[in-house]
Amino acid sequence: MKRVMGIDIGEKRIGVAVSDPLGITAQGIETYMRKGENDAYYIVERARGLGAQLIVAGLPLNMNGSEGPSAQKAREFMAEVNALGMPSVFVDERLTTVSAERMLIDADVSRKKRRQVVDKIAAVYILRTYLDTHQL
Are 55 and 5 a contacting pair, CB within 8 Å? Predict the structure, then answer.
């Protein structure tokens, strides 16, 4: 399997995770603070630098499975990523941020520190979802 990058796309931050080359583990890499028009370029260059050949992005669906404004923004962002030559796929990310937040609360991480890492942990959940369904 090839190395894969997972991202949790938010309006202010993008959580980033990457798999090992065998596609067994998912490791949180960073929480990127969005800056504007060069965000897609940064993500593609970060993926290439990590040796990722595919980006898995979370698609924030509504609880009933429909797409709202956040899903449309994620699709627009990933269209920019694809235009830069990086292939991508979406996975349903419903409740990944909630799960990441709950895990951090259970680990007794302070509110300030949770805010700094929750997107990175959500990216791990997104990537893990993909890896679990695409094993060789």
Answer: yes
Burial level of 36, CB count in 10 A (0-12/13-18/19+)?
Answer: exposed
Token duo for residue 38: 């060069």
Task: Note the pTM of the prediction, 2 decimals.
Answer: 0.86
In this predicted model, what pLDDT tens digit does every residue of 75-120 receive, in sequence order?
999 999 999 999 999 998 866 666 666 766 666 666 666 566 778 8
Contact 135, 13 (CB under 8 A): no
pLDDT, one tens digit per residue, over 55-85 is 999 998 877 878 888 899 999 999 999 999 9
Closest CA to 39 of 28, 47, 50: 47
User: Which secondary-structure segment (H or E) carries 15?
Assistant: strand 13-19
Distance CA 16, CA 70 (A): 18
Which distant-in-sequence residues (6+ apart) come within 8 Å of 51 by Cβ? Answer: 3, 21
